[in-house]
Write a structure and sequence with these properties.
The complex is a heterodimer of chains A (114) and B (114).
Chain A lengths: L3 E4 L2 E4 L5 E7 L5 E8 L3 E10 L2 E4 L6 E7 L2 E6 L8 E8 L9 E2 L3 E5 L1
Parallel strand pairs in A: 2-11
Antiparallel strand pairs in A: 1-3, 3-8, 4-5, 4-9, 5-6, 7-8, 9-10, 9-11
Chain B lengths: L2 E3 L4 E5 L4 E3 L2 E3 L6 E7 L6 E7 L6 E3 L2 E6 L4 E6 L8 E8 L7 E2 L3 E6 L1
Parallel strand pairs in B: 2-12
Antiparallel strand pairs in B: 1-4, 3-9, 5-6, 5-10, 7-8, 8-9, 10-11, 10-12
The chains are: A mainly beta (114), B mainly beta (114).
Chain lengths: 114, 114
């Protein structure tokens, strides 16, 4: 158990509304990630963070923004949700230190945009 | 750009059969990392193994074994004497040197029937 929680776990929202997903970790890991999972695509990286207020874009960052104001929380925001953003969103962490290259995932958030 | 191909969309086997899940990757990096993750029907992502590009030694863990061949850019996963509990989606993934930008294959659905 990597001590990762995601909230909410399920959400239904309407097109055009803003949505924020939260990832919370309890073990002070430096690196945090947001992915989306869609059939036929596996998981794709949206954004990641390498420290407080330090973030970078991933493969599918358009339409998403992130913030990390404290080590334990990494927020993913959809400024104006679209139906193409219906997906399962996973947060992940990676431990700092030599040899720590694997990522551990949270339970996921299922988002439906109607 | 990095790419991971899992050509087998779905595999069905009968319990106790051996099964091999294929993974082929593309990268221009000389140092990289390969991973396998399991996603059971409950939806969480479970880390199984990490392999460094400079270590081609095969690995065995119980009924699981992994065959890494740089010459063919493949990192295949074999389950010996499959069990119903092995039914899941299996993802192969690749990351660059710093372990941040994880690229996943589309996944292989494994169904083990009793």
């Amino acid at each position: 158990d990597a001590g990762i929680t995601q909230s909410p776990r399920h959400k239904v929202t309407e097109t055009g509304t803003p949505v924020t997903l939260r990832c919370h970790q309890t073990e002070n890991h430096r690196y945090m990630y947001w992915y989306r999972q869609d059939p036929g695509h596996g998981l794709r990286l949206i954004h990641y963070s390498y420290g407080v207020k330090d973030t970078d874009k991933g493969e599918v960052s358009d339409g998403y923004s992130v913030s990390r104001s404290k080590t334990e929380d990494f927020l993913l925001t959809l400024e104006s949700a679209t139906s193409s953003q219906t997906s399962v969103y996973f947060c992940a962490i990676r431990a700092t230190g030599t040899g720590n290259y694997e990522q551990y995932f949270g339970p996921g958030t299922r988002l439906t945009v109607t | 750009a990095q790419k991971v191909t899992q050509a087998q969309t779905e595999i069905s086997v009968v319990e106790k059969e051996d099964v091999t899940l294929d993974c082929v990757y593309e990268t221009r990096d000389t140092t990289y990392y390969l991973f396998w993750y399991k996603q059971p029907p409950s939806g969480e992502l479970v880390f199984l193994i990490r392999r460094n590009s400079f270590d081609e030694q095969n690995e065995i863990s119980g009924r699981y074994s992994w065959n890494f061949q740089k010459s063919t850019s493949s990192f295949n996963f074999t389950i010996t004497a499959s069990q119903v509990v092995d039914s899941a989606v299996y993802f192969c993934a690749l990351s660059e040197l710093f372990g941040n930008k994880l690229v996943f294959g589309a996944g292989t659905i494994l169904r083990v029937k009793s």
